[in-house]
Hints:
The complex is a heterodimer. Chain A has helices at 25-38, 67-78, 90-93, 99-108, 123-130, 148-162, 180-191, 221-224, 249-256, 260-263, 286-289, 296-315, and strands spanning 56-61, 82-87, 113-118, 136-142, 169-173, 196-200, 216-218, 230-233, 271-273. By secondary structure, chain A is of the alpha/beta class. In chain A, strands 7-6-5-8-9 form a five-stranded parallel beta sheet. In chain A, strand 3 (113-118), helix 5 and strand 4 form a beta-alpha-beta unit. Chain B is of the alpha/beta class. Chain B has helices spanning 75-84, 103-116, 139-146, 161-174, 185-188, 197-202, 210-226, 238-249, 286-297, 333-342, 348-355, 357-363, and strands at residues 3-12, 17-26, 29-33, 44-47, 52-55, 57-59, 87-92, 120-126, 150-152, 177-180, 193-194, 206-207, 230-232, 254-259, 303-305, 378-388, 407-417, 420-424. In chain B, the strands form three sheets. In chain B, strands 1, 2, 3, 4, 5, 16, 17 and 18 form an eight-stranded mixed beta sheet that branches. Chain B has an eight-stranded parallel beta sheet with strand order 6-7-8-9-10-13-14-15, with helices on both faces.
Amino acid sequence: MKQTDIQFDQNGLLRHFLTIDGLKRQTLTDILDTAENFSTVGTQQVKKVPLLRGKTIVNLFFEASTRTRTTFELAAKRLSADVLNINIDTSSTSKGESLLDMLRNLEAMHCDMFVVRHNLSGAAHFIAQHVSPHISVINAGDGQHAHPTQAMLDMFTIRRHKQDFTKLRVAIVGDIMHSRVARSQIHALNTLGVPEIRVIAPNTLIPPGTESLGIHIYHDMEKGLKDVDVVMMLRLQRERMSGALLPSEHEYFNTYGITSEKLKLAKPDAILMHPGPINRGVEIESAVADGPQSVILEQVTNGIAVRMAIMSMTLGRQPSAESTEGTST
Amino acid sequence: MKILIKQGHVIDPANNIDAVNDVYISNGKIESIGKAPEGFKAKKIIDASNQIVMPGIVDLCARFREPGLEYKGTIASESAAAAAGGITTVCIPPDTEPCIDSVAVAELINQRSVTAAKCNIVTQAALTLGLQGDHLSEMAILKKQANSVGVSNGLKPLKNILVMRRAMEYAASCGLTIFLHSEDVGLANNGCAHEGAVSTRLGLPAIPESAETAAVSRDLMLIEQTGVRAHFSHITSANALQMIAQAKEQGLPVTVDTSIHHMHLVDLDIGFFDSNCHVIPPLRSQRDKDGLRIGLQKNTVDVLCSDHQPHCADAKLAPFSATEPGISGLETLLPLSLRLVNDKVIDLTTMVSKLTIEPANILGIKAGSLSIGSSADVCIFDPSINWTVNPSEFISAGHNSPFADWELQGKVSHTLLAGTITYQS
């Protein structure tokens, strides 16, 4: 089975949203434009549009999440879909029901979309390969592979502030190694035509072969942040301190944490982003997180419109020849 | 029964035979090649014209899963698959359940292979008890009473290097070859794919090349010190192979094999998480694949093997890193080796040698040749038949193959084990 583009249906329309790797610029632009249309829904008196009325969306979260799950839920509800939240502790299911059996059961309840978060890379692809033909899958983060909706809301936020991607210099700072967000951001920025993407981190947090994603590596914040238009911070998980990756939080903040001082190296109108949840004093100084250049809360707000766009595009495709009660592939 | 294999292109590197010839078999043994023995009356004649007649393949590493993992494969099912692949002898690593650290387990396997009667089986004894890496197994007894051909710790590297040193010293005094899966556990860090652009793009836990090179370099030092005869199993990186080539030049008693899939696949073949490409050691870079092929050309690589690991379907139905590693390879070993001939990496005689007499020599067994008087273990194949791999048609219980839909050339028509036809297409 050679599946090259399982993200698209037989009519070339976006059926699943699993990774940005391999998508065309037009697809990303369509998502951003659609999201722009949805961005006002949240500010209206009636915060709902009837696009996905009668559809059932399952939030299938094998990993804890507050922000992502909540915004997916809100996005689905604003599109008038019915939402089911399922939180699964992987440690308790690992010995019991297999992932595939669980999917079969949910399919038997006639759901239309799975929004999946899983701690293993490739989980969303695996699920997309095995669901019935009428079901769409959205990747809400799989292992260290991809978090494409986060990257799209980041692109949406950048576009609101900077308009033209092809004139930007962007720096991504922090733990690239373990970050699915960074991988998706890099693919999105490249696809949208950003000419210079920098990655700033110590070697222990940059996996070999990262250059092949189309970035420049810096180990020094002073050089890396110079004249950039966008600073994208990554969250540093505290458990990374236990291994031999980094000496201490103190040293990390000292070398790679963003402070008002360091932010001055970027262009004066540079924006500061973070996918959240932020670790104040570890990767980001409070004054910067709450400062005028920070767009961190805007990112959260934009997440709803972007997720509405992706859900409506995948699930609200033109009714095609595909069966609605198809058998498994 | 007297059998005549007529007019086949006989290739037997052990005896320098490479010509169209008739092969005469009686009482399960090769009686003559070329000239008909006096009064020879064949009960069966196999027309081998336009086909290659070679010694039955000796597969240096294949897991038959019995005892303990019969849901993945049995000695009966996998022996039949071996026969279909032209294989007449396989060497089984000790990681069955329970593992081969007692004569009882080894004998069970030996007996089942006699019952199945589709291929010969030889076993490697566990290097340490329960493959735990702490205590040495009773390897002298296993050699004496169960004919174990060597010792190995399966795919479990020893954590304590002192145990490795002692094991090598002891194996050397027993006259046993040690088979090494050279991997540094710490560097491998529970990874599942080669560390490089692909693992980074897919966010898969990665195994660096240094997990292999560091271990090989350390093992070479210990081999030099202890004088043990050692065999490096399934080497995957060009750099490790280079180190072994140097050691060979210096006269160290080492040999090396590569699994046939590492000669054809690289990390890029994982695509978007194809779990059939999940294998340990992992598929490496294009550069490594090229290096392995050069090593084969330069005769550093002594043997090509299947590294057969059949799985039930469930084992591959999960996100990539949660699937079980391994490829069902018995039935594609010969055509994939032939592909190396067609790719002009090696010639046909070298290919036959690396599938027959060379592995037999490493195992120290009488097999892998068509010498007069030897057991009539023969593989006859048509090198011109094109076929498309369809793993669901495998005779092996394991249908896990990344070669699905590959167009391959060369198909076995007959396999003979001690003069008995064990497979016929």
